[in-house]
């Protein structure tokens, strides 16, 4: 946060929100032989687990000041909420991408059992990753709205301007 306070961040730094989105796939490895030289993946289930870990950091210089701590937590919570909102909005598209990938990957015979499963896995990952990229772009738009000039001004003037003076002290 000190680096950000030294000018590497475009706005007033009152804290930092870090969100980590992870996903895991569990794919049933059922395959059926399709003619003499072909194999098709025929999963009975595909499970996609999404998890969002949200952490808010505030400067230690704010810790003894109730107003600054509240200001930092309130602002960074908006970013954390934006992450959750973006995931909620993206969830149906991610589920659809998963279903489309399974349909595509299970319709074409492959030369081996391994190829059939690899194609299924790659199609699912590609489809999910594409939707996660869309979600990230949406999330960035939400962040820009949160860091509006009005919000920055609010943070600068709240707590009798102590956030700004504390950040200036952090730069030194």
Summarize this structure briefly.
With 172 residues, the protein is α+β, with helices and mostly antiparallel strands. It contains five helices and four strands, in the order H-E-E-E-E-H-H-H-H.
Labels describing this entry:
172 residues; alpha+beta; two-stranded antiparallel ribbon; 17% strand; rod-shaped
Q: Any chance you could write out the topology, listing elements then pairs?
A:
Elements: H1 2-8, E1 16-27, E2 31-33, E3 39-41, E4 46-57, H2 66-105, H3 113-146, H4 149-157, H5 162-171
Antiparallel strand pairs: 1-4, 2-3
Poorly predicted residue ranges:
4-8
**Main structural class:** alpha+beta
Q: Could you report the average pLDDT, rounded to the nearest whole number?
A: 87
Helicity level: 55-70%
- Report the principal-axis shape: rod-shaped
Beta-strand percent range: 15-25%
N→C terminal distance: 13 Å
How many β-strand stretches? 4
Radius of gyration: 23 Å
Count of DSSP-assigned helices: 5
Biggest sheet layout: 2 strands, antiparallel
Strand order within the widest sheet?
A: 1-4
Order of helices and strands: HEEEEHHHH
Total discrete domains: 1
